Amino acid sequence: MQTQQAAVGGQPDLPHRRGGTPCTTRLADACPPDNILLDVPVEGTIQLFDLVARHVARSGVSAERIGDELIKRERLGSTGLGQGVAIPHACVDGLGSAVALFVRTRHPFAFNAPDRKPVSEFVVLVLPLADDRAHLELLADAARWFGERAIRQASRDAQTPDEIHRLMQRTV
């Protein structure tokens, strides 16, 4: 995992943000390989959010609260982007730092995406309540990452969490 210090000047080919951190470093740091779940047998939004909530609850925040916040946010409007991808996200009080999960489901399911296509790839962001700027930057990083057709294809073809993590580290 790369620290902010190592990132400053360490990767001149990557776009940088305020503070010198490459855009992809934030996403990769928030989503280590242990948070990359491939070919998961979930069949709907509630199952997905339950899986994510249980996984993130290891950080000490109640799984029920995490799941409730994800559902509440999704009810405001779909976080589906189209092209089979979505970025569900929620802010949760008591969380120390941002947590991202990449989830690829075994089968796509309806997620109210703007193109009406089912979704099978998700970057789910669970963020501390207090840090709006970091929340928006991480959300923008995930959207930029999924916005690249080559990334979407490579993430669909990836066989291991490490392959996905390497994609997050080297691309925007």
TrEMBL record:
Is the keyword Phosphoprotein assigned to this protein?
A: no
The family database entries (Gene3D superfamilies) matched by this protein are listed as: Mannitol-specific EII, Chain A (3.40.930.10)
- Entry keyword set: Sugar transport, Transport
Q: Where is this region: Disordered?
A: 1-21
> Does this UniProt record's set of keywords contain Transport?
yes
At the top level, the lineage of the source is Bacteria
GO MF entry, a single one = protein kinase activator activity
User: InterPro entries, alphabetically?
Assistant: PTrfase/Anion_transptr (IPR016152), PTS_EIIA_type-2_dom (IPR002178), PTS_SugarTrans_NitroReg (IPR051541)
Domain called PTS EIIA type-2: residue spans? 29-171
What PANTHER family is this protein classified in?
A: NITROGEN REGULATORY PROTEIN, PTS SYSTEM FRUCTOSE-LIKE EIIA COMPONENT-RELATED
The protein's name is PTS sugar transporter subunit IIA
Q: Which organism is it from?
A: Burkholderia cenocepacia
